[in-house]
Amino acid sequence: MKHTVTLFALSLVLVGCNRHLSDSEISHKAVGVWTTPHTTVTTDIRSDGSYFTSGASNGTAGSWHVEDGYFVVLISNVSDHVTGAVFAPSRFKVVSIDNHQMTFISKGTTGQFTLTKP
């Protein structure tokens, strides 16, 4: 019986650690100014669903939302110079997010990238 209680308590802790955040929780935690490590690029993710990235050759701006655990970004100020078409939304699976770090996997790839908050 003593071991059963210990195993039950441990399983509750492990389940809590692996809990997936809801889209609204991810959205709430995503708001703020994030930096790309080892670069001068910053991204200001705003609560109104807009964002602005600066520090690259040209800044980009657009809209964002979270859907089914994916961070969905639509760039609105950059177009394809050949066709003039606006880029399609990009989807990034949120692997983890807290108050200081957000880690993604770009849809269709296995490589992760992380943004940080100071």
Notes on the structure:
- 12% of the residues are buried.
- The protein is globular, with a radius of gyration of 18 Å.
- A hairpin with a 5-residue loop joins strand 3 (50-54) and strand 4.
- 20% of the residues lie in helices and 39% in strands.
- The chain has helices at 2-17, 23-30; strands at residues 32-35, 42-45, 50-54, 60-67, 70-75, 90-97, 101-106, 112-116.
- Residues 1-18 have low confidence and may be disordered.
- The protein is an alpha+beta fold and 118 residues long.
Distance between termini? 47 Å
Enumerate the spans where pLDDT stays under 50 for 5 or more consecutive residues: 1-18
For the secondary structure, the number of strands is 8
Enumerate the strands of the largest sheet in spatial order, edge to edge or round the barrel: 1-2-3-4-5-6-7-8
Order of helices and strands: HHEEEEEEEE
Mean pLDDT over all positions: 78
Helix content: 10-25%
Roughly what fraction of the amino acids lie in strands?
35-45%
Q: Structural class of the helix and strand makeup? A: alpha+beta
What is the rounded Rg?
18 Å
Main sheet makeup: 8 strands, antiparallel
Estimate the global geometry from the Cα principal axes: globular
Number of continuous helical runs = 2
